[in-house]
Amino acid sequence: MDLRPTSKAQILSATGNSAFYDYKSDVAAFGTVRGRLGYEMGPTLLYVTGGLAYGDIEKITNTYGSFFADAKLNSWAAGYVVGAGIEYKVSQNLSLKAEYQYMNLGKNDVCASPAFQCFGLSNPIKDDDYHLIRIGMNYHF
């Protein structure tokens, strides 16, 4: 299980705009609960991974003109994560790894919230999805 908290700093971000408003999506913290399935070739392990992803999402929508109100939404969202990696055992107790993950936390649009009304405007906000590359070192007990 992973948890990646931060102290009031964005760690993942996506932006965009339409003819009516700009939007920004930040993830202040996220975590995963994953399994791994792999193939061992001597000291090398090739694997795929997947499972549950969750994150603390902040959506900000800035509208143009005075008729529409700006909106901000903070919420926790759940989705999925899939990926693949390689791990190499350099000694009896130490291994190095590199991993790619695709994390999708679903559609978490400000306009979809009952607290905000977007007056029937089409909402161009896509899924909250992120591509992650991780490198690391594991100690084996």
Question: Would you write up a description of this structure?
Answer:
- By secondary structure, this protein is an all-beta fold.
- It has a single domain (2-139), classed as Porin (Beta Barrel).
- The chain has no helices and 7 strands.
- Strands 1, 2, 3, 4, 5, 6 and 7 form a 7-stranded antiparallel sheet that branches.
- A hairpin with a 3-residue loop joins strand 2 (12-17) and strand 3.
- The radius of gyration is 19 Å and the shape is elongated.
- The relative contact order is 0.22.
- Residues 5-10 have low confidence and may be disordered.
> In what range is the share of β-strand residues?
over 45%
Q: How many structurally independent domains?
A: 1
Tell me the total number of β-strands: 7
Gap from first CA to last CA: 18 Å
Oligomer: single chain
Q: What structural category characterises the helix and strand content?
A: mainly beta
Shape: elongated
Helix-strand pattern, N to C?
Answer: EEEEEEE
**CATH fold description:** Porin
Concise structural overview:
The chain has 141 residues and is mostly beta strands.
Properties at a glance:
141 residues; mainly beta; Porin; seven-stranded antiparallel beta sheet
Helices and strands, with pairings:
Elements: E1 2-4, E2 12-17, E3 21-41, E4 44-63, E5 71-89, E6 94-104, E7 129-139
Antiparallel strand pairs: 1-3, 2-3, 3-4, 4-5, 5-6, 6-7
